[in-house]
Amino acid sequence: MLALQILAGWLGSLGFALLFKVRGSNLFYASFAGFISSFIYLGLVDLYGVYTSIFLATICFALYCEIVSRIKKATVTTFLICGLIPLVPGSGMYYMMLAFVSGNMNEAGLIATQTLTIAGLIALGIILVSTFVKFYPGVEIKWSYKYYRKKDM
Amino acid sequence: MACEERLLKTVSKAGRILLESGAEIYRVEETINRVLNCFHVEEGSAFVTPSGIFVSFVSEGKTYSKVVRVTSSSLNLTRINEVNQASRDICGGIIDLDEFEKRIQLCSRRELNTPKLDRWYSAMTAMAFAVFYGGGLWEAVGAAIAGFGVNCAQKYFAKRRINSFVAIGLCSVLIVLFACCFSTLPLPFQRDTMIIGCMMLLVPGLAITNAIRDSLAGDYLSAITRATEALLISVSLAVGAGIALSLWLLGGGH
Q1: Tens digit of pLDDT for each residue in A19-72?
Q2: Nearest residue of A to residue B247 by CA position?
Q3: Cα A30 from Cα B106, distance rounded (Å)
Q4: DSSP summary character for residue A103
Q5: pTM for the whole thing?
């Protein structure tokens, strides 16, 4: 069942990549980001709980995205969006509404807080990774100014 | 002289394509600024908001400027990558302005839109997420049907120019009502899993990512705009589901 769920996470990010019009070999790399995030999240969620596993999964897939975007010379967003999708707390939103509609205000508030925390953790993970890769020299894609182009205009 | 006009036209077109395809704001600004800088114009600067682009530069004592209002948007990550590559090539001296113009033209004309296939992609995505959230065969089947329907509904709402938040709320209502009807069938079926799988299609993934990346780049105005967008989309998703659920409960369902 777990393996099936992880594969489903991969397929889901592949579907999102297709909907966002990613084409070519980037399609595989983008959906693989979704595989990483769902693999780590589902693998660790029983051991460490939701928050830790979401945070670790975010760190790992964001790192993968930063690396692969430099190898493939594509924008980080291409991979980041597809990897992020399996972690987005869509279920929290729904269960909050379900509790709200059934008049269970305390539970609705609790789930809302949890959902916001998860969203914040995902943001924090991505921010951490994309800040720390900047400390590693040589990974920035170089832009060159050495050609004087005024004459070609 | 005509060259400056052409440069202005081309960079603003490149920026427009980037913004329409869903690039981050700082990427649009940076691309325009870098292309302008590598032509050594004076005071080249771009100011980009999620709904418009302002480009201006000075060349030989004359000021050139252009305002581009961007309303439509169609997500297309491949186009972002192509424009990005073209601007990197022109800064690296690999291509000249003619070639750059040609590639930008090609990008804007290139249509990757495949409305028929999109429905199947969205059915596949909804099915996958129903399984991801622990659903079995019937949840997957129900989610696939609903995902197909949601994509058709989204296209219809877009054609009718319905406000995107209202459209997402309506899609959410449709999903929940469909799931409730589907759950009356005598099948081993978990309604919640199917609904969540389907609602993942409408989750604001791009808005969240762009909000994070823009705030990282120090562009707080755009970051706030994107974050608000993400929040509003989530709220309308939840409100739509809430309305449909309470309707269903009022009607005697459970």
Answers
A1: 888 888 889 999 999 999 999 999 999 999 999 999 999 999 999 999 898 888
A2: A101
A3: 24
A4: T
A5: 0.86
Distance of CA B36 to the CA centre of its chain: 27
Query: Residue B94 is which amino acid?
Result: I
Map tokens 């980001």 to a residue: A33
Dihedral sign (CA B204, B210, B214, B217)? positive
Q: How far apart are CA B41 and CA B48, in angstroms?
A: 19
Cα–Cα distances in angstroms (integers) from residue B214 to residues B22, B67, B114, B211, B231, in the given order: 12, 22, 29, 5, 16
Which residues in chain B are closer than 8 Å to A88, comparing Cβ atoms? Answer: 200, 203, 205, 208
Phi–psi pair at A148, nearest 5 degrees: -85, 115
Expressed in angstroms, the distance from the first to the final Cα of chain B is: 72
The residue of chain B nearest to residue A131, with distances taken between CA atoms, is B216
ipTM: 0.86
Q: Tell me which DSSP letter residue B47 carries.
A: E
Q: What is the mean pLDDT of chain B?
A: 87
How far does CA B130 lie from the centroid of its chain?
23
